[in-house]
Amino acid sequence: MIDIAMDMEQYDCPFIDTTADHGVAFAAVHWDFDTAERELETRMVVEAEETEALDTGLSALRDHRNMNDVTMVRRQDDVAQVRTVMAETTAMRTIRDNGGYITGPFHIEAGSEVWHVGFDRGRDADDTLSELDRDNEFDIIDRSATTLPELNDVAQNAGAAMTLIEGCRDLSDRERETLEEAVSSGYFESPRDATLGSLAEEFGISKPAVSKNLRRGERKMIERVVDAFDDIDS
Question: Is residue 114 included in any domain, yes or no?
Fold first, then answer.
């Protein structure tokens, strides 16, 4: 399988137009294409910086010429989940007509959309990219050929991957920021390029405080890694 990740700017996509004009972002949690009606049904998580931006963004999405239906599933402050039904875009048609298919969730923000698309043959992928280049703006983020053993490995270990993802979600914002800074600054290298003192200075807190944030973040992630080991073994 040829797997391609691309940053796409479609000119007829309701989600892209909405994020370009309003301060909202969309992340797909489910999608299904109706081949008879040539429509895409999705469940989307919508985020905004404030409730007013979410209101105006959803209103613009409903009014878009290519959006057939928007139904609120649930909402909490400036985050909502919606069910949408939209008309097939030109880029979607090009990909499907060349045997392509979506292989992962897509994210739309600030007028562009990250797609993960798969093809059974490299020739089909090349033809699709050539056709897309005529009417769309896009950048290839990554392109890789996946072997059958690798595909099987992904399918067999989906549970372990979700365990690690849940571990990332368990982190507080400060714990995540501390871990990211520790890794990027070389705290875990040998010899270390950063110290508790330099990390504390970066965040404007004491060394005991930054140490506590590191330990909490490390403990949460290590526990999830150990749980993932069990999923992989089983």
Answer: yes
